[in-house]
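Backbone description:
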Amino acid sequence: MKNVTALSAVFLALASGIYASSAMASYGKGDIYTRVGIVKVDPKSDNGNFNAIGVSSVDVDQDKGFGFTLGYRFMDKLGVELLAAEPFEHDIALDGVNSASTKHLPPTLTLQYYPFGGTDASVQPYAGVGVNYTRFSDEKVDGGSLELDDSWGVAAQLGVDLLLDDHWALNAAAWYMDIGTDATATIGGSSYDTTVDIDPLVIMGGISYRF
């Protein structure tokens, strides 16, 4: 929640500065762009339980790594963007002890709205909504095996570009992702099922380049 509050404050502060015009080319229809930076995946707390094996709390740890997006503006105020990243690895605490881990890839496609699209405003906020697909791999659990099903869910996004010239900009963005997975642990030849709700806040800071 603190991350959401801080990001909202930054977003509102930047978006209020706002309509400063420059000699830069209009920011809008036909733009193809990429954004690259460091991504932090911060799952919500209390991700579930595994009562079937005597575990009352499951907590998924955060991770950070390199991420990038590729986007296209098909109208001045509307565009689409795909988020991709290197695999993230999360420790999983069972009753407070790091006893499991997994890697995942969370590609996310959003439809975006740019309120100042089509203008040369140097501050360009945007919001998006879309879908997330999460693929889990390399699952491990002490004393047995772990399998996490791939997940589909909704995603929401807020971001802002601070334009430096016709091509380069500083970028900050955040996504909320609805990630829930069915988990199966096999221990001592017996299998046990539960559901793990990860629902992370994903934050990226970096640079943007438009072609």
